[in-house]
Design a protein that fits this description.
Length: 504
């Protein structure tokens, strides 16, 4: 492998070069694929993760006027999974479950406050990047992949990578934001920031592009984490100009009083959305989110074009995924962390050398399926843990192939959702239930769980709920961690290189 010594000191941290230690571990998320290659040749893998990207993209819901030309072009070359869902509907559980191959109900990592190192199951698992390292790959990482508040032990994390760069996002707060933060319980600000070079995504894309010029003598696993459209919804002005406020309407999935048939305290929610409507700013938030989606699309395009122009274009698997969905007013909700479609559905696209192009697969799949599928298709070492997902290599290879079971997403111990090709069933720990028929109700406006004629449907879906749910593991007890976390909240900045400083 060519050892180009870069001196790229970007916005947060310059690239860090590691020796090649023995412990192999770490993250990366989703890579499914099938590649026609000789038995002794392994494909490279380019892994693109996008934070908080919901289904507004034209490939899924097709929000009116959305502009994502790079994703649209990539779809013509890739397989797009139109019914993909996360393991947990917020960053940490989604990413931790993908990396370990273990569902949140197994690890007890349900929220951003549940730390990887507090989970016996997560600590004992071989992580996906470790499997790639053990399988003979050289590994590279730039951008957001792990949740920065929940990573493996420092020594183990460092051992996963041959080279890394600006791996933790800055929050992009500064005085040039046109709109100040709203206050407790409301979005963390939005507005225009120029020039684009201030953004970590710009620096991370440049770093990945430089790596793709290396002369590799063994296959690479290269992770590029795109931070936008995560909050705060800030982006360069040109992206805001794509979405004039007077052209925007409520999202198609918005319905006034949509929570009227939702049981328990969930039916009394919506305070954030109502507050934004009262302030006359909901459309501004929508505009800012759409601007960030288009900004992220350009970042994605920068990575894809660099690979296309490299010597590795024809022997690299590309896996592009979002970690979960996002509400912008749907179900009177602002954000993620729900068991509804708008929060669990994510983008998942795979391009395979010599594989099918421009294909849409509607079968429900999970981000948890990535680990077992890669084990087979990349000939990776078998992980010691019992993986929660399903090997779906057949869906990549064959038209009309099926997954053997519905997809499950975990919100908390005892609160889960089951999604098959037609139905979404939600069961809450307090006994509340919801049922939606996606054949006739794609935005989940009508909860059918209280109607006796659907009891048999509910019973058929309930059997897929986890038999047991691990207790939430909570935050790390590492000295100084909570002080650091609180300081990060107050400063809205992040310059941590590797999560925490616990000893291996």
């Amino acid at each position: 492998m060519k050892s180009l010594k870069l001196s790229l000191f970007t916005i947060l941290n310059g690239p860090v070069r590691f020796a090649k230690p023995g412990l192999v571990v770490a993250l990366l998320l989703g890579t499914l694929f099938f590649v026609s290659a000789s038995a002794d040749t392994k494909p490279n893998v380019l892994f693109i993760a996008v934070d908080d990207l919901n289904d507004y993209v034209s490939l899924l819901q097709d929000f009116p006027g959305i502009k994502t030309p790079n994703l649209d072009a990539f779809a013509k070359e890739a397989i797009t999974f139109t019914n993909a869902h996360c393991g947990g509907p917020i960053c940490n559980p989604s990413r931790t479950s993908l990396l370990t191959g273990l569902a949140p109900h197994v690890t007890g990592v349900y929220t951003n406050g549940d730390h990887w190192t507090m989970s016996k199951e997560a600590n004992a698992a071989m992580a996906l990047p470790e499997a790639f390292k053990a399988g003979g790959y050289t590994t590279y990482w730039a951008g957001k992949l792990f949740h920065p508040l929940s990573t493996p032990f420092k020594g183990r994390l460092e051992a996963m990578w041959d080279e890394t760069g600006t791996n933790v996002p800055g929050e992009m707060w500064d005085g040039s934001c046109t709109i100040a933060p709203f206050g407790p319980g409301l979005p963390r600000g939005y507005g225009v920031i120029d020039p684009p070079a201030q953004f970590p995504d710009v620096a991370n894309v440049a770093l990945v592009r430089s790596w793709l010029k290396y002369d590799f003598d063994k296959p690479f696993f290269m992770a590029a984490g795109i931070i936008r459209p995560h909050t705060p919804f800030t982006a360069p002005k040109k992206y805001f100009d794509m979405y004039p406020l007077d052209t925007l309407q409520d999202p198609p999935g918005y319905l006034e009083n949509d929570l009227a048939d939702v049981p328990g305290k969930r039916g009394k929610g919506g305070a954030r959305t109502r507050k934004l409507r009262e302030m006359g700013r909901l459309k501004e938030v929508l505009q800012a989110y759409l601007a960030c989606v288009s900004f992220a699309d350009d970042s994605i395009g920068g990575v894809l074009k660099a690979l296309e122009n490299s010597e590795y274009a024809n022997n690299t698997i590309i896996v592009l995924w979002g970690d979960h969905g996002y509400h912008i007013g749907e179900k009177d909700h602002m954000g993620k962390t729900t068991l509804w479609e708008q929060a669990t559905r994510n983008l998942l696209m795979v391009k395979m050398p010599g594989g099918r192009k421009g294909v849409r697969v509607d079968e429900p799949v999970s981000l948890l399926d990535i680990f077992p599928t890669l084990q087979e298709l990349c000939r990776l070492p078998k992980a010691p843990q019992e993986l929660s997902g399903e090997n779906i290599a057949n869906l990549l290879k064959k038209k009309g192939a099926k997954r053997s079971a519905p997809v499950v997403t975990d919100l908390a111990a005892g609160s889960h959702t089951v999604r098959d090709a037609r139905w979404r069933y939600i069961a809450y720990a307090d006994g509340g239930e919801e049922l939606y028929d996606h054949d006739s109700d794609p935005y989940e406006f009508h909860n059918l769980a209280g109607k006796s004629e659907y009891r048999a449907t509910i019973d058929s879906l309930k059997k897929w709920l986890p038999a047991m749910s691990a207790k939430a593991v909570g935050p790390t007890s590492e000295p100084g961690y909570e002080a650091w976390r609180q300081g990060r909240r107050e400063s809205n900045q992040s310059s941590i290189v590797f999560g925490n400083n616990m000893a291996p």
